[in-house]
TrEMBL record, chains A, B:
<dbReference type="InterPro" id="IPR016155">
    <property type="entry name" value="Mopterin_synth/thiamin_S_b"/>
</dbReference>
<protein>
    <recommendedName>
        <fullName>MoaD/ThiS family protein</fullName>
    </recommendedName>
</protein>
<dbReference type="InterPro" id="IPR012675">
    <property type="entry name" value="Beta-grasp_dom_sf"/>
</dbReference>
<dbReference type="InterPro" id="IPR003749">
    <property type="entry name" value="ThiS/MoaD-like"/>
</dbReference>
<dbReference type="Pfam" id="PF02597">
    <property type="entry name" value="ThiS"/>
</dbReference>
UniProtKB/TrEMBL annotation, chains C, D:
<comment type="subunit">
    <text>Heterotetramer of 2 MoaD subunits and 2 MoaE subunits. Also stable as homodimer. The enzyme changes between these two forms during catalysis.</text>
</comment>
<protein>
    <recommendedName>
        <fullName>Molybdopterin synthase catalytic subunit</fullName>
        <ecNumber>2.8.1.12</ecNumber>
    </recommendedName>
</protein>
<dbReference type="GO" id="GO:0006777">
    <property type="term" value="P:Mo-molybdopterin cofactor biosynthetic process"/>
</dbReference>
<dbReference type="InterPro" id="IPR003448">
    <property type="entry name" value="Mopterin_biosynth_MoaE"/>
</dbReference>
<dbReference type="GO" id="GO:0030366">
    <property type="term" value="F:molybdopterin synthase activity"/>
</dbReference>
<dbReference type="InterPro" id="IPR036563">
    <property type="entry name" value="MoaE_sf"/>
</dbReference>
<comment type="similarity">
    <text>Belongs to the MoaE family.</text>
</comment>
<keyword id="KW-0501">Molybdenum cofactor biosynthesis</keyword>
<dbReference type="Pfam" id="PF02391">
    <property type="entry name" value="MoaE"/>
</dbReference>
Amino acid sequence: MEITIKYFGQLVETTNTTEELITIEKGQISSLLNLLLNKHKGLKQKDFQIAQNQEIVSVDTELSGAEIALLPPFSGG
Amino acid sequence: MEITIKYFGQLVETTNTTEELITIEKGQISSLLNLLLNKHKGLKQKDFQIAQNQEIVSVDTELSGAEIALLPPFSGG
Amino acid sequence: MKDKKPKNVFREGAISHEFIGNSIYKHQSKTSIGAHNIFLGQVRADDVDGKTVSAIEYTAYEDMANQKFHDIREATFEKFDLTCMHIYHSLGTVKAGEICLFVFVSAPHRKVVFEALEYVVEEIKANVPVFGKEIFEDESHQWKVNN
Amino acid sequence: MKDKKPKNVFREGAISHEFIGNSIYKHQSKTSIGAHNIFLGQVRADDVDGKTVSAIEYTAYEDMANQKFHDIREATFEKFDLTCMHIYHSLGTVKAGEICLFVFVSAPHRKVVFEALEYVVEEIKANVPVFGKEIFEDESHQWKVNN
């Protein structure tokens, strides 16, 4: 399936992109994560959470096809 | 000695005055209080604290000659 | 600090939103501040036995009250690491819906402003000789008591 | 309540003191309110290794952030007996000394506004995907992290 990946904050600098389309087999978040870490080596040094369909998820969550976002530590306010 | 007595809030209504001069012998706050309760019968039904020289005092405090205030419950803010 | 003359905390009538806005604006030059916390007391149009409060008329034992405000201020700076603190209280008539108390604390970080603001407001309610007379629409009145 | 579309909490640039003053003014018609509590986040001119922060540039995962603000709002009304509540957060550049977060809670009595305001601010800091880039005077930058 095709999944939109969004990057925020300092991860935009790490990946040099705010958004990309990734094609991947069905599976868990972890398989997508491996793919992204391979594509963007800089991500390995970064602290981030993953949101699927705007909800924070763990790596063993099934990919639903909904939008994925990589979110560095929050610093609002 | 001569002592200035100040009344505040609803006690102004009770005593019909904001301030009066009282002449009294040396002694404790309690003797002044008795004199005032006699003079203004309505005070007996009222809840108040007594300040001498702007500090809340108990009835066994000695009269210093400084200003006395009768303060009903506070309701600032 | 007792010998330092207390400032006058009282303002005649309601505290306007422009005054509050300006007070906030004045803090923009204090760039070590990261968090402000503001308490505003507003006069409620309470219903009492079918009558509605239309205003509160505030009086105070002004000298003692200003000294108490000053003492609260000193104690608060002792207890909490604040950058600044301001207190204003109305005297005279404040209509329902208008502001009668404005407490403003500021610090580099947020945790301390929450604790400090609540402390200041509770101290004011408990220890400052201010008296509110609730005026009803028919011009009768009752004396307010803090809880 | 999840199906109700979240409001947009974000404002472009700093939140002005006039905006805050007007927001206070609008509550004068709500005469059941007795206590307001306001939190303001202000950008600090922090020193980092001899360089001074001159501004923070805020970005956000806006859709998720607005949904989170909405969820925090719903949860706060569940937990606390508030009359009303408003949240505004800046996006884009906010200079040192300017306001980037404005949280405003109101209730008939004071106790609940203290608890509610702190709850809301902590929830925002922990759960809303907003990202602050601290810009130094020499135009270098670092990414802010909440503590």
